[in-house]
Specification:
There is one protein chain. By secondary structure, the chain is an all-alpha fold. The protein has a single domain, classed as Cytochrome Bc1 Complex, Chain D, domain 2 (Orthogonal Bundle), CATH 1.10.760. 61% of the residues lie in helices and 0% in strands. The chain has seven helices and no strands. Helix 5 packs antiparallel against helix 7 and helix 6 crosses helix 7. The longest helix is centred in the last third of the chain and has 26 residues. The chain is globular and about 35 Å long. The relative contact order is 0.14. The structure holds heme C (HEC). The site of heme C (HEC) has 27 residues, from helix 4, helix 6 and helix 7.
């Protein structure tokens, strides 16, 4: 490991520590729970494996669901999605279609079907398993 790399690792470490002690609970957010720094970072990286779904996700849902400042349930933030899933998939698809809170109608995907919305929610709510697979692949 060269010096630049070591300094970068140190920097990442300190950012992680800062993330742990930061109290985000007072922020005005649509999220019920507070994501950890790791959850925030992972959300930015997740992409559906299916190519067509990945394109839709990238041009619509990802704009908000991958970035904590958008105040949308983060992709891969399973605990937050579990609360949403308790409403039932039919309600979640309808809320996506009509818009809810800070989310515009259709989640900005105007050519999406209800089946697409269902698949996108499935992906965002369960992205942890996919991430684990990616990390394992990289570690080889
Ligand atoms: C412009 C930002 C934005 C985009 C684009 C967006 N969302 Fe959202 N989404 C939000 C926000 C903000 C919330 C939280 C709404 C709330 O609970 O007040 C949300 C919540 C949701 C929920 C939970 C709704 C509920 O009833 O709890 C689902 C499901 C959802 N989004 C699906 C999608 C899908 C699928 C896409 C892509 C097709 C998408 N969103 C695109 C901002 C966005």
């Amino acid at each position: 490991m060269n010096t630049a790399c070591k300094s970068f690792s140190l920097l990442v470490f300190f950012i992680l520590m800062a993330g742990c002690s930061e109290d985000q609970s007072t922020e005005n957010t649509s999220q019920v729970l507070t994501p950890t720094f790791e959850t925030i970072m992972a959300a930015e990286a997740f992409m559906p494996e299916d190519e067509r779904l990945a394109k839709i996700y990238d041009r619509s849902c990802r704009t908000c669901h991958a970035f904590v400042d958008a105040e949308a349930p983060l992709t891969g933030f399973v605990a937050e999605w579990d609360i949403r899933l308790a409403k039932g998939m039919t309600t979640l698809v309808a809320n996506t279609r009509h818009g809810v809170g800070g989310m515009p109608a259709m989640g900005t995907c105007f050519d999406c079907s209800d089946a697409d919305f269902n698949a996108l929610v499935d992906f965002m709510a369960t992205a942890t398993a996919i991430a684990t697979a990616i990390v394992t692949e990289d570690a080889k």
